[in-house]
Protein backbone atom coordinates (compact mmCIF):
# COMPACT_ATOMS: atom_id res chain seq x y z
CA UNK A 1 0.00 0.00 0.00
CA UNK A 2 2.99 2.32 0.17
CA UNK A 3 2.57 3.51 -3.45
CA UNK A 4 -1.08 4.31 -2.74
CA UNK A 5 -0.18 6.36 0.33
CA UNK A 6 2.56 8.15 -1.59
CA UNK A 7 0.22 8.90 -4.49
CA UNK A 8 -2.57 10.30 -2.31
CA UNK A 9 -0.15 12.27 -0.15
CA UNK A 10 1.24 14.02 -3.20
CA UNK A 11 -2.27 14.72 -4.45
CA UNK A 12 -3.13 16.44 -1.19
CA UNK A 13 0.18 18.28 -1.26
CA UNK A 14 -0.57 19.54 -4.77
CA UNK A 15 -3.89 20.93 -3.53
CA UNK A 16 -2.09 22.68 -0.69
CA UNK A 17 0.40 24.24 -3.11
CA UNK A 18 -2.44 25.52 -5.25
CA UNK A 19 -3.97 27.07 -2.15
CA UNK A 20 -0.78 28.97 -1.44
CA UNK A 21 -1.06 30.61 -4.84
CA UNK A 22 -4.80 31.17 -4.66
CA UNK A 23 -6.27 31.67 -1.20
CA UNK A 24 -9.82 32.42 -2.29
CA UNK A 25 -12.01 30.44 0.20
CA UNK A 26 -14.39 29.20 -2.49
CA UNK A 27 -11.50 27.90 -4.56
CA UNK A 28 -9.97 26.23 -1.52
CA UNK A 29 -13.24 24.48 -0.77
CA UNK A 30 -13.40 23.28 -4.36
CA UNK A 31 -9.80 22.06 -4.22
CA UNK A 32 -10.46 20.25 -0.96
CA UNK A 33 -13.40 18.43 -2.51
CA UNK A 34 -11.29 17.49 -5.53
CA UNK A 35 -8.51 16.21 -3.28
CA UNK A 36 -10.98 14.16 -1.26
CA UNK A 37 -12.47 12.64 -4.41
CA UNK A 38 -9.02 11.76 -5.75
CA UNK A 39 -8.02 10.14 -2.48
CA UNK A 40 -11.23 8.10 -2.39
CA UNK A 41 -10.93 7.09 -6.03
CA UNK A 42 -7.29 6.10 -5.50
CA UNK A 43 -8.24 3.92 -2.54
CA UNK A 44 -11.05 2.19 -4.47
CA UNK A 45 -9.23 1.76 -7.76
CA UNK A 46 -5.72 1.03 -6.55
CA UNK A 47 -5.91 -2.77 -6.57
CA UNK A 48 -7.64 -3.19 -9.97
CA UNK A 49 -5.43 -0.51 -11.55
CA UNK A 50 -2.27 -2.17 -10.22
CA UNK A 51 -3.45 -5.55 -11.55
CA UNK A 52 -4.06 -3.96 -14.95
CA UNK A 53 -0.71 -2.14 -14.93
CA UNK A 54 1.19 -5.30 -13.97
CA UNK A 55 0.26 -6.83 -17.33
CA UNK A 56 0.95 -10.35 -18.52
CA UNK A 57 2.99 -13.00 -16.78
CA UNK A 58 5.25 -15.57 -18.43
CA UNK A 59 3.65 -18.86 -17.46
CA UNK A 60 6.18 -21.07 -19.24
CA UNK A 61 8.01 -23.53 -17.00
CA UNK A 62 10.54 -24.35 -19.71
CA UNK A 63 13.99 -25.29 -18.53
CA UNK A 64 17.09 -23.82 -20.21
CA UNK A 65 19.66 -26.40 -19.11
CA UNK A 66 22.49 -26.68 -21.61
CA UNK A 67 21.52 -23.44 -23.32
CA UNK A 68 23.44 -20.18 -23.47
CA UNK A 69 21.76 -16.79 -23.17
CA UNK A 70 23.33 -13.36 -23.72
CA UNK A 71 21.58 -10.36 -22.18
CA UNK A 72 22.87 -6.85 -22.83
CA UNK A 73 22.52 -4.33 -20.01
CA UNK A 74 21.91 -7.15 -17.54
CA UNK A 75 23.39 -5.50 -14.46
CA UNK A 76 20.24 -3.52 -13.64
CA UNK A 77 16.49 -3.22 -14.22
CA UNK A 78 14.56 -5.67 -16.35
CA UNK A 79 17.81 -7.01 -17.80
CA UNK A 80 18.96 -8.16 -14.38
CA UNK A 81 15.59 -9.75 -13.61
CA UNK A 82 15.66 -11.52 -16.98
CA UNK A 83 19.18 -12.78 -16.28
CA UNK A 84 18.11 -14.12 -12.90
CA UNK A 85 15.16 -15.92 -14.47
CA UNK A 86 17.37 -17.52 -17.12
CA UNK A 87 19.79 -18.64 -14.40
CA UNK A 88 16.95 -20.14 -12.38
CA UNK A 89 15.98 -22.16 -15.46
CA UNK A 90 19.50 -23.59 -15.64
CA UNK A 91 20.95 -21.60 -18.54
CA UNK A 92 24.51 -20.41 -18.95
CA UNK A 93 23.93 -16.66 -18.67
CA UNK A 94 26.29 -14.05 -20.09
CA UNK A 95 25.85 -10.54 -18.75
CA UNK A 96 27.05 -8.16 -21.46
CA UNK A 97 27.55 -4.80 -19.76
CA UNK A 98 29.43 -1.52 -20.03
CA UNK A 99 30.47 -1.49 -16.38
CA UNK A 100 32.30 -4.67 -15.43
CA UNK A 101 32.19 -3.73 -11.76
CA UNK A 102 28.40 -3.36 -11.70
CA UNK A 103 27.97 -6.44 -13.87
CA UNK A 104 30.09 -8.58 -11.57
CA UNK A 105 28.07 -7.39 -8.56
CA UNK A 106 24.88 -8.39 -10.37
CA UNK A 107 26.34 -11.75 -11.42
CA UNK A 108 27.47 -12.49 -7.87
CA UNK A 109 23.96 -11.73 -6.60
CA UNK A 110 22.34 -13.91 -9.28
CA UNK A 111 24.67 -16.82 -8.54
CA UNK A 112 23.83 -16.55 -4.85
CA UNK A 113 20.07 -16.30 -5.42
CA UNK A 114 19.78 -19.12 -7.96
CA UNK A 115 22.61 -21.47 -7.06
CA UNK A 116 23.64 -21.36 -10.72
CA UNK A 117 27.40 -20.76 -10.90
CA UNK A 118 27.34 -20.59 -14.69
CA UNK A 119 26.71 -16.84 -14.78
CA UNK A 120 29.53 -14.88 -16.39
CA UNK A 121 30.33 -11.29 -17.28
CA UNK A 122 31.85 -9.74 -20.40
CA UNK A 123 32.53 -6.14 -21.30
CA UNK A 124 30.20 -4.61 -23.91
CA UNK A 125 29.81 -0.90 -24.62
CA UNK A 126 27.17 -0.39 -27.29
CA UNK A 127 28.38 3.18 -27.78
CA UNK A 128 31.60 1.75 -29.26
CA UNK A 129 31.62 -0.38 -32.41
CA UNK A 130 35.12 -1.52 -31.44
CA UNK A 131 33.75 -2.82 -28.13
CA UNK A 132 30.89 -4.57 -29.95
CA UNK A 133 33.34 -6.29 -32.30
CA UNK A 134 35.62 -7.31 -29.43
CA UNK A 135 32.71 -8.76 -27.47
CA UNK A 136 31.42 -10.69 -30.49
CA UNK A 137 34.90 -12.13 -31.11
CA UNK A 138 35.12 -13.35 -27.52
CA UNK A 139 31.74 -15.06 -27.82
CA UNK A 140 32.42 -16.56 -31.25
CA UNK A 141 35.83 -17.87 -30.15
CA UNK A 142 34.92 -19.15 -26.69
CA UNK A 143 31.26 -20.16 -26.66
CA UNK A 144 30.26 -23.44 -28.33
CA UNK A 145 26.65 -22.29 -28.73
CA UNK A 146 24.28 -19.32 -28.44
CA UNK A 147 20.60 -20.08 -27.99
CA UNK A 148 19.13 -16.71 -27.07
CA UNK A 149 20.36 -13.16 -27.64
CA UNK A 150 18.35 -10.53 -25.75
CA UNK A 151 19.07 -6.99 -26.95
CA UNK A 152 17.97 -5.32 -23.75
CA UNK A 153 20.37 -2.42 -23.10
CA UNK A 154 19.46 1.11 -24.08
CA UNK A 155 19.49 4.80 -23.24
CA UNK A 156 16.61 7.26 -23.13
CA UNK A 157 16.25 11.02 -23.55
CA UNK A 158 19.93 11.89 -23.49
CA UNK A 159 21.27 15.29 -24.52
CA UNK A 160 22.69 15.28 -28.05
CA UNK A 161 25.72 13.24 -27.19
CA UNK A 162 27.65 11.17 -29.69
CA UNK A 163 28.99 7.66 -29.51
CA UNK A 164 32.67 6.85 -29.93
CA UNK A 165 32.03 6.54 -33.66
CA UNK A 166 30.19 9.85 -34.03
CA UNK A 167 26.60 8.58 -34.04
CA UNK A 168 23.81 10.30 -32.14
CA UNK A 169 23.80 8.48 -28.79
CA UNK A 170 20.24 7.12 -28.69
CA UNK A 171 20.31 5.87 -32.29
CA UNK A 172 23.81 4.50 -31.80
CA UNK A 173 23.25 2.65 -28.52
CA UNK A 174 19.64 1.60 -29.03
CA UNK A 175 19.89 0.53 -32.67
CA UNK A 176 23.31 0.52 -34.35
CA UNK A 177 25.14 -1.25 -31.51
CA UNK A 178 22.59 -4.10 -31.25
CA UNK A 179 22.34 -4.24 -35.06
CA UNK A 180 26.08 -4.88 -35.39
CA UNK A 181 26.17 -7.23 -32.41
CA UNK A 182 23.35 -9.38 -33.74
CA UNK A 183 24.88 -9.60 -37.21
CA UNK A 184 28.25 -10.62 -35.81
CA UNK A 185 26.63 -13.40 -33.76
CA UNK A 186 24.31 -14.73 -36.48
CA UNK A 187 26.54 -17.65 -37.47
CA UNK A 188 26.65 -18.82 -33.85
CA UNK A 189 22.87 -18.46 -33.57
CA UNK A 190 22.32 -20.41 -36.79
CA UNK A 191 24.63 -23.19 -35.63
CA UNK A 192 22.65 -23.44 -32.37
CA UNK A 193 19.18 -23.43 -33.95
CA UNK A 194 16.46 -23.44 -32.86
CA UNK A 195 17.53 -20.12 -31.37
CA UNK A 196 16.06 -16.69 -30.75
CA UNK A 197 16.83 -12.98 -31.00
CA UNK A 198 14.71 -10.85 -28.67
CA UNK A 199 14.88 -7.07 -29.04
CA UNK A 200 13.48 -4.80 -26.34
CA UNK A 201 11.77 -1.94 -28.16
CA UNK A 202 9.05 0.29 -26.71
CA UNK A 203 5.52 1.55 -27.21
CA UNK A 204 7.30 4.86 -27.89
CA UNK A 205 7.89 3.64 -31.44
CA UNK A 206 4.25 4.49 -32.12
CA UNK A 207 4.88 8.16 -31.31
CA UNK A 208 6.82 8.77 -34.53
CA UNK A 209 5.65 8.60 -38.12
CA UNK A 210 8.88 7.13 -39.43
CA UNK A 211 12.66 7.16 -39.68
CA UNK A 212 14.08 10.45 -40.94
CA UNK A 213 16.51 9.04 -43.48
CA UNK A 214 17.53 12.55 -44.54
CA UNK A 215 18.79 13.29 -41.01
CA UNK A 216 19.27 9.84 -39.53
CA UNK A 217 22.07 11.04 -37.25
CA UNK A 218 20.10 14.10 -36.03
CA UNK A 219 22.76 16.51 -37.25
CA UNK A 220 20.37 19.13 -38.58
CA UNK A 221 17.96 19.11 -35.65
CA UNK A 222 17.68 17.23 -32.38
CA UNK A 223 14.78 16.63 -30.04
CA UNK A 224 15.53 14.07 -27.34
CA UNK A 225 12.04 12.53 -27.23
CA UNK A 226 11.79 12.25 -31.02
CA UNK A 227 15.27 10.74 -31.20
CA UNK A 228 14.30 8.11 -28.63
CA UNK A 229 11.02 7.31 -30.40
CA UNK A 230 12.83 6.82 -33.70
CA UNK A 231 15.47 4.61 -32.12
CA UNK A 232 12.69 2.39 -30.77
CA UNK A 233 11.00 2.32 -34.17
CA UNK A 234 14.38 1.26 -35.54
CA UNK A 235 14.30 -1.67 -33.07
CA UNK A 236 10.92 -2.79 -34.38
CA UNK A 237 11.91 -2.44 -38.04
CA UNK A 238 15.26 -4.19 -37.44
CA UNK A 239 13.58 -7.13 -35.73
CA UNK A 240 11.01 -7.39 -38.51
CA UNK A 241 13.61 -7.33 -41.30
CA UNK A 242 15.85 -9.76 -39.41
CA UNK A 243 13.02 -12.28 -39.23
CA UNK A 244 12.77 -12.21 -43.03
CA UNK A 245 16.49 -12.63 -43.55
CA UNK A 246 16.52 -15.60 -41.15
CA UNK A 247 13.53 -17.38 -42.68
CA UNK A 248 14.10 -21.12 -42.76
CA UNK A 249 17.20 -21.04 -40.54
CA UNK A 250 15.52 -21.95 -37.26
CA UNK A 251 16.44 -18.57 -35.78
CA UNK A 252 13.52 -16.36 -34.80
CA UNK A 253 13.41 -12.61 -34.23
CA UNK A 254 10.78 -10.75 -32.22
CA UNK A 255 10.59 -7.32 -30.58
CA UNK A 256 8.61 -6.17 -27.56
CA UNK A 257 7.34 -3.40 -25.32
CA UNK A 258 8.24 -4.14 -21.69
CA UNK A 259 5.85 -1.58 -20.23
CA UNK A 260 6.47 1.66 -18.37
CA UNK A 261 8.89 0.63 -15.64
CA UNK A 262 8.59 2.52 -12.37
CA UNK A 263 12.12 1.71 -11.23
CA UNK A 264 13.87 2.12 -14.57
CA UNK A 265 17.34 3.62 -14.72
CA UNK A 266 16.43 4.98 -18.15
CA UNK A 267 15.00 8.12 -16.55
CA UNK A 268 18.39 9.18 -15.17
CA UNK A 269 19.08 11.65 -17.98
CA UNK A 270 15.65 13.23 -17.69
CA UNK A 271 16.23 13.74 -13.96
CA UNK A 272 19.49 15.55 -14.74
CA UNK A 273 17.68 17.72 -17.30
CA UNK A 274 15.01 18.69 -14.78
CA UNK A 275 17.62 19.70 -12.24
CA UNK A 276 19.40 21.82 -14.82
CA UNK A 277 16.21 23.54 -15.93
CA UNK A 278 14.31 23.98 -12.69
CA UNK A 279 16.82 23.66 -9.88
CA UNK A 280 17.28 20.94 -7.30
CA UNK A 281 14.11 21.54 -5.23
CA UNK A 282 11.65 21.69 -8.14
CA UNK A 283 13.37 18.75 -9.83
CA UNK A 284 13.06 16.76 -6.61
CA UNK A 285 9.33 17.56 -6.44
CA UNK A 286 8.86 16.52 -10.07
CA UNK A 287 10.65 13.23 -9.42
CA UNK A 288 8.33 12.52 -6.49
CA UNK A 289 5.20 13.31 -8.53
CA UNK A 290 6.35 11.17 -11.46
CA UNK A 291 7.40 8.43 -9.05
CA UNK A 292 3.98 8.48 -7.41
CA UNK A 293 2.22 8.17 -10.77
CA UNK A 294 4.54 5.38 -11.92
CA UNK A 295 4.05 3.54 -8.63
CA UNK A 296 0.38 3.18 -9.51
CA UNK A 297 0.34 2.98 -13.30
CA UNK A 298 3.83 1.63 -14.00
CA UNK A 299 5.36 -1.81 -13.70
CA UNK A 300 7.95 -3.14 -11.32
CA UNK A 301 11.11 -4.48 -12.93
CA UNK A 302 9.85 -8.01 -12.23
CA UNK A 303 6.62 -7.25 -14.09
CA UNK A 304 8.46 -5.45 -16.89
CA UNK A 305 10.76 -8.40 -17.54
CA UNK A 306 7.93 -10.85 -18.18
CA UNK A 307 7.57 -10.25 -21.92
CA UNK A 308 11.32 -10.55 -22.51
CA UNK A 309 11.33 -13.83 -20.58
CA UNK A 310 8.29 -15.09 -22.47
CA UNK A 311 9.81 -14.35 -25.87
CA UNK A 312 13.03 -16.07 -24.79
CA UNK A 313 11.64 -19.31 -23.36
CA UNK A 314 7.98 -19.99 -24.21
CA UNK A 315 7.71 -23.33 -26.02
CA UNK A 316 4.78 -22.21 -28.14
CA UNK A 317 6.86 -19.33 -29.56
CA UNK A 318 9.70 -21.53 -30.87
CA UNK A 319 8.61 -20.96 -34.48
CA UNK A 320 7.04 -17.53 -34.01
CA UNK A 321 8.97 -14.76 -35.72
CA UNK A 322 8.61 -11.21 -37.00
CA UNK A 323 6.11 -10.15 -34.34
CA UNK A 324 5.88 -7.39 -31.75
CA UNK A 325 4.85 -8.37 -28.22
CA UNK A 326 3.43 -6.59 -25.21
CA UNK A 327 2.24 -8.21 -21.97
CA UNK A 328 3.43 -11.59 -23.27
CA UNK A 329 1.14 -11.62 -26.30
CA UNK A 330 1.51 -10.41 -29.89
CA UNK A 331 0.25 -6.88 -30.46
CA UNK A 332 -0.20 -4.84 -33.60
CA UNK A 333 2.55 -2.34 -34.12
CA UNK A 334 2.12 1.09 -35.71
CA UNK A 335 1.84 1.56 -39.46
CA UNK A 336 5.44 2.82 -39.45
CA UNK A 337 6.46 -0.35 -37.61
CA UNK A 338 5.04 -2.48 -40.45
CA UNK A 339 6.69 -0.51 -43.25
CA UNK A 340 8.70 -3.23 -45.00
CA UNK A 341 10.25 -0.77 -47.45
CA UNK A 342 11.53 1.38 -44.57
CA UNK A 343 12.78 -1.74 -42.76
CA UNK A 344 14.80 -2.86 -45.78
CA UNK A 345 16.17 0.65 -46.28
CA UNK A 346 17.11 0.96 -42.61
CA UNK A 347 18.94 -2.37 -42.81
CA UNK A 348 20.96 -1.20 -45.81
CA UNK A 349 21.77 2.18 -44.22
CA UNK A 350 22.71 0.52 -40.92
CA UNK A 351 25.05 -1.94 -42.65
CA UNK A 352 26.92 0.99 -44.16
CA UNK A 353 27.00 2.97 -40.91
CA UNK A 354 28.53 0.13 -38.87
CA UNK A 355 30.93 -0.99 -41.60
CA UNK A 356 29.33 -4.27 -42.61
CA UNK A 357 28.98 -2.95 -46.15
CA UNK A 358 31.07 -0.34 -47.93
From TrEMBL:
<feature type="transmembrane region" description="Helical">
    <location>
        <begin position="34"/>
        <end position="53"/>
    </location>
</feature>
<keyword id="KW-1133">Transmembrane helix</keyword>
<dbReference type="GO" id="GO:0016491">
    <property type="term" value="F:oxidoreductase activity"/>
</dbReference>
<keyword id="KW-0472">Membrane</keyword>
<dbReference type="InterPro" id="IPR036291">
    <property type="entry name" value="NAD(P)-bd_dom_sf"/>
</dbReference>
<keyword id="KW-0560">Oxidoreductase</keyword>
<keyword id="KW-0812">Transmembrane</keyword>
<comment type="similarity">
    <text>Belongs to the short-chain dehydrogenases/reductases (SDR) family.</text>
</comment>
<protein>
    <submittedName>
        <fullName>Retinol dehydrogenase 13-like isoform X4</fullName>
    </submittedName>
</protein>
<feature type="transmembrane region" description="Helical">
    <location>
        <begin position="6"/>
        <end position="22"/>
    </location>
</feature>
<dbReference type="Pfam" id="PF00106">
    <property type="entry name" value="adh_short"/>
</dbReference>
<dbReference type="InterPro" id="IPR002347">
    <property type="entry name" value="SDR_fam"/>
</dbReference>
Amino acid sequence: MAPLLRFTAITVLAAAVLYVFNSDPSNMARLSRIAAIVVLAAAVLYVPVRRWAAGGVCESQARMDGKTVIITGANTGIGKVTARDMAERGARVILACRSLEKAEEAAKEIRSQTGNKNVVVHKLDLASLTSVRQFAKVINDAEPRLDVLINNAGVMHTPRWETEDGFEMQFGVNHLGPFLLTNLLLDKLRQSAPSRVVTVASLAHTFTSGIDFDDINSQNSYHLEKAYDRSKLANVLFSRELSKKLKGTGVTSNSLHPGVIMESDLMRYRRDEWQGKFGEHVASALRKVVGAIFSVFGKTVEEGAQTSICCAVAEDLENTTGLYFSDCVPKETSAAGMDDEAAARLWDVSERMVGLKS
